[in-house]
C-alpha cells in the first residue's frame, strides 16, 4: 500500500530522515517508535505531502504523493492540533470533514454513535468550541474525525499521548479492531512501547532518522524494544 | 480654546479604541505566578508596563507639538503647562479605567451608547454636553494648579486597579480565560452549493466567531466612510476628479482589502488539515472569492448615502465596485499566496499591519489594484469625458470577470507552488 524509496529529508545540512526502502502492505497495522527527533513526524509529514522530500519518493496505493493529489480521498490523518479547526464545535467539525469526504450527515451521525463510549460524554453536545476543549478531548475529536469516510490509510501521530487511562484502553481496542480489517492500513507512532506492541502487528524503530529495527510483533517484542531503548 | 470643546469626545474615543485593541497585562502574568515573586510585585510590574504602552504615548504626538505652538502663539505658558499635564493625566486615567473594565461588555457598550446619544444631541443642537465639559478643560488652563485634580484621580485609579488586580490574581478568577458558549450551526441553506457551500459555511463561522476577523469586518465598515474625505471637498489635494475612482474602490472594497489580502492566512492555524484533506484548491478559493464579492456588493448598497453628494459620487462607487469584483478580487487572492503571515484568530495583535505583509510582490500587486483604475479613468476623463472614464473602468472590470476560470487556474498554480513554503511559514506561531 505504502512504499518509501530512498527517502531523505535534510534540514540545513542535517539529515533528519533517511529511509532506503520501506514497504507497508495493505491492511497492516504498523507501529513507529523512536525518541524525540528520531524522524517519526517527519516521515508522517512526508506521507501527507506536507513537506518536500530532499530525495526519494513516497508512493501511496500506486500514487506518488508529491506529484498527484489522488491519494487524498482514501487517506486520513491526525497529526496534531493543526488538524483541528478551533472555532468549530466538535459536531460542526465532524460534519465539515464528512462533507469533504462525501459523507452525509446521517453517515457521520452513525459513525459518531459507535464512538459514544470513546467520547465518554465529553465531546458531543458540550456547547464548547474545539479550542476550549482540553488537550485530551481535542485528541479524541481528531482521532475519530480521521475515521470518517472509510479511509484505507489512517495515520495517527502519538494518538495515546494526553489521553486518560480509560480512553487509552478504549483506543487500543479501536485500533486493534481496525487492524483486523484487511482493507485498512493503520500507521501509529508512539512513545509508549507497551501500547504499540499491543496494537501493532509490525513495529519499526527509528533512530536519528534511520530504521534500526523492523520487527513482526511477538511476545518477545516488548523486551527487545525495552532493551534497545535502555541502551 | 476650541480644542477644549471636543476633547471630551477625544477622550471617550480613546477609551473606545483602547477597549477594542489594547492588550490586557493579565495575559502575560500566568508564567510569573509560579516564580518566587511577591504578588504585589507582579501587579506593580504589569501595571507599570501598561504605562509605556503605545496607546499612552501616542497622544504625545498631538499634544506636545500642540502645546508648544500654543506657547509660541503667546498663550500663558503656565496655563498651557497646567492644561497639558491635566489632559495627559486624563489619558492615563483612561489607561487604568480600561484595565478595570477589562472586557466587561456590560459596562462598555452602555457607555458607548450614551456617548452616541450625546453626539447626536449635539449634532441636532438639542443638548450640548461640551457646554458642561469644556469649562473643566478650560479650568486647567485658567487656574494651572487645578491640574492636580486629574493627577489625584489618576493616583486613585492606579491604586484601584492595583487592588482589583491583586484580588483577582487567581487562575480561576481574573486570570481565567473566558469560554464562550458554543452553539452548533448548520446553515443547511448553503448545502445546495455543494462543496462550495461547505467552505462558505466554515468561512461564515470563521468571521463570526473570531476576534480578529470581526475586527476586519468593523474595519471594512469604517472604510465606507472613507469617501467623505473626498466627496465633501474638505481636503483640497483630493479635489482632482481621478481621486473619485480611488475613493470608489476603497469604499466598496473595504472588506476585499482587509479580509482578502490575508487569504489563505485566515486558515493558517489548521492549514496542514486543509492540505491533507480531500480538498480542491479551486473550491477553496471560490468560497473566499464569493465571500469577497458578496461583501463588495453589500458595501456598495450600504454606501447609497453618498447619493447625497450627487449621482456622480455614487457612480464612482459603483464603478469602483465593478472593478473590485472583476479585477481586484483576483489580485488579492493572488497576493495572499505570497503573504504567508500566520494569523492568530483569537487576538487582535498585528491586526493593523505587519512587516511581513509588505514585501515586493505584494507591493507590486497594489499597482494594478489602485493605480491602474486611476490611470484608466484618467485616460477616459481627459481624452474624452468623465462618463467615458467611468465606462472604461467598468469595462475593465467586466472584462476581468469574463476571464474568471483562466485566472483561477493561474492562482491555483501559484498556491500549489507556494504550498510547502506556506506550511512552513504557518508553523512559526503568530
Account of the 3D structure:
The complex is a heterodimer of chains A (231) and B (430). Chain A is α/β, with parallel strands linked by helices and 231 residues long. Chain A has a single domain, classed as Rossmann fold (3-Layer(aba) Sandwich), CATH 3.40.50. In chain A, 33% of the residues lie in helices and 27% in strands. In chain A, the strands form 2 sheets. In chain A, strands 6-7-8-3-9-10 form a 6-stranded mixed beta sheet, sandwiched between helices. Chain B is an all-alpha fold. Chain B has 2 domains: 166 residues, no CATH class; 240 residues, no CATH class. Chain B is built from 20 helices and no strands. In chain B, helix 1 crosses helix 8, helix 5 packs antiparallel against helix 6 and helix 17 packs across helix 20. The radius of gyration of chain B is 25 Å and the shape is globular. The mean pLDDT of chain B is 81. At the A-B interface, strand 6 and helix 2 of A face helix 10, helix 15 and helix 20 of B.
Query: Total helix count of chain A?
Result: 8
Helix-strand makeup class of chain A = alpha/beta
N-to-C span of chain B: 45 Å
Number of domains of chain B: 2
Low-confidence stretches of chain B: none
Report the CATH architecture of chain A: 3-Layer(aba) Sandwich
Q: Segments of chain A where pLDDT lies below 50 for 5+ residues?
A: none
Strand content of chain A: 25-35%
Q: How many individual β-strands of chain B? A: 0
Task: Please give the alpha-carbon distance between the first and last residues of chain A.
Answer: 33 Å
What class, by secondary structure content of chain B? mainly alpha
Largest interface: A-B, 35 and 31 residues
Quick gist of this model?
The complex is a heterodimer of chains A (231) and B (430). By secondary structure, chain A is α/β, with parallel strands linked by helices.
Which features would summarize this protein structure in a list?
heterodimer; A: 231 residues; alpha/beta; Rossmann fold; six-stranded mixed β-sheet; four-stranded antiparallel β-sheet; 10 strands; 33% helix; globular; B: 430 residues; mainly alpha; 2 domains; 70% helix; 0% strand
Amino acid at each position: 500500500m505504502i512504499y518509501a524509496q530512498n527517502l531523505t529529508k535534510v534540514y540545513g545540512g542535517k539529515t533528519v530522515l533517511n529511509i532506503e526502502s520501506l514497504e507497508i502492505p495493505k491492511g497492516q497495522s504498523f507501529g513507529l517508535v523512536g525518541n524525540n527527533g528520531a524522524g517519526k513526524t517527519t516521515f508522517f509529514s512526508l506521507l501527507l505531502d506536507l513537506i518536500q522530500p530532499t530525495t526519494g519518493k513516497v508512493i501511496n496505493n500506486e500514487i506518488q504523493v508529491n506529484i498527484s493529489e489522488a491519494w487524498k480521498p482514501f487517506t486520513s490523518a491526525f497529526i496534531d492540533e493543526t488538524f483541528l479547526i478551533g472555532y468549530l464545535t466538535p459536531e460542526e467539525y465532524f460534519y465539515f470533514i464528512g462533507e469533504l469526504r462525501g459523507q452525509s450527515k446521517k453517515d457521520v451521525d452513525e459513525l459518531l454513535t459507535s464512538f459514544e463510549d470513546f467520547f465518554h460524554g465529553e465531546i458531543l453536545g458540550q456547547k464548547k468550541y474545539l479550542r476550549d476543549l482540553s488537550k485530551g478531548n481535542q485528541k479524541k475529536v481528531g482521532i475519530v474525525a480521521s475515521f470518517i469516510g472509510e479511509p484505507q490509510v489512517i495515520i495517527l501521530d502519538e494518538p495515546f499521548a494526553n489521553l486518560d487511562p480509560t480512553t487509552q484502553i478504549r483506543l487500543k481496542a479501536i485500533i486493534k479492531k481496525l487492524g483486523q480489517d484487511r482493507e485498512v492500513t493503520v500507521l501509529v507512532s508512539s512513545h509508549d512501547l507497551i501500547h504499540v506492541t499491543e496494537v501493532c502487528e509490525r513495529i519499526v524503530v527509528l533512530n536519528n532518522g534511520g530504521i534500526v529495527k523492523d520487527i513482526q510483533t511477538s511476545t518477545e517484542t516488548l523486551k527487545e524494544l525495552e532493551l534497545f531503548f535502555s541502551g | 480654546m476650541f480644542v477644549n470643546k471636543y476633547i471630551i469626545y477625544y477622550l471617550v474615543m480613546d477609551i473606545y479604541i483602547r477597549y477594542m485593541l489594547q492588550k490586557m497585562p493579565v495575559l502575560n502574568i500566568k508564567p510569573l505566578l509560579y516564580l518566587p515573586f511577591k504578588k504585589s510585585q507582579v501587579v506593580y510590574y504589569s501595571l507599570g508596563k501598561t504605562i509605556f504602552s503605545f496607546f499612552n504615548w501616542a497622544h504625545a504626538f498631538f499634544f506636545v507639538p500642540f502645546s508648544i505652538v500654543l506657547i509660541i502663539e503667546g498663550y500663558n505658558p503656565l496655563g498651557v503647562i497646567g492644561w497639558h499635564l491635566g489632559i495627559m493625566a486624563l489619558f492615563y486615567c483612561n489607561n487604568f479605567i480600561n484595565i478595570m473594565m477589562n472586557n466587561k461588555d456590560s459596562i462598555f457598550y452602555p457607555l458607548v451608547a450614551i456617548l452616541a446619544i450625546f453626539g447626536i444631541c449635539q449634532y441636532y443642537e438639542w443638548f450640548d454636553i461640551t457646554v458642561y465639559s469644556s469649562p473643566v478643560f478650560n479650568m486647567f488652563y485658567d487656574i494651572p494648579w487645578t491640574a492636580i485634580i486629574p493627577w489625584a484621580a489618576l493616583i486613585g485609579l492606579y491604586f484601584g486597579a492595583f487592588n482589583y488586580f491583586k484580588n483577582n490574581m487567581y487562575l480561576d478568577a481574573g486570570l481565567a480565560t473566558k469560554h464562550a458558549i458554543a452553539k452548533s450551526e448548520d446553515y443547511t441553506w448553503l448545502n445546495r452549493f455543494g462543496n462550495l457551500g461547505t467552505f462558505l459555511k466554515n468561512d461564515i463561522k470563521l468571521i463570526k466567531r473570531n476576534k480578529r476577523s470581526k475586527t476586519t469586518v468593523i474595519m471594512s465598515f469604517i472604510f465606507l466612510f472613507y469617501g467623505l474625505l473626498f466627496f465633501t471637498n474638505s481636503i483640497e489635494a483630493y479635489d482632482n476628479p481621478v481621486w473619485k475612482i480611488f475613493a470608489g474602490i476603497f469604499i466598496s472594497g473595504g472588506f476585499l482589502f482587509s479580509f482578502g489580502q490575508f487569504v489563505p492566512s485566515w486558515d493558517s492555524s489548521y492549514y496542514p488539515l486543509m492540505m491533507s484533506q480531500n480538498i480542491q484548491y479551486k473550491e477553496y478559493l471560490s468560497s473566499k472569492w464569493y465571500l469577497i464579492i458578496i461583501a463588495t456588493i453589500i458595501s456598495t448598497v450600504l454606501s447609497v448615502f453618498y447619493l447625497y453628494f450627487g449621482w456622480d459620487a455614487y457612480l464612482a462607487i459603483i464603478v469602483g465596485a465593478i472593478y473590485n469584483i472583476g479585477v481586484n478580487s483576483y489580485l488579492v487572492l493572488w497576493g495572499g499566496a505570497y503573504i504567508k503571515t500566520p494569523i492568530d484568530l483569537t487576538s487582535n495583535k498585528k491586526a493593523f499591519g505587519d512587516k511581513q505583509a509588505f514585501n515586493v510582490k505584494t507591493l507590486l500587486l497594489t499597482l494594478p489594484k489602485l493605480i491602474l483604475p486611476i490611470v484608466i479613468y484618467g485616460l477616459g476623463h481627459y481624452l474624452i469625458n468623465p462618463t467615458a472614464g467611468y465606462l472604461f473602468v467598468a469595462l475593465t472590470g467586466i472584462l476581468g470577470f469574463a476571464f474568471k476560470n483562466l485566472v483561477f487556474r493561474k492562482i491555483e498554480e501559484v498556491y500549489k507552488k507556494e504550498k510547502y513554503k506556506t506550511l512552513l511559514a504557518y508553523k512559526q506561531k503568530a
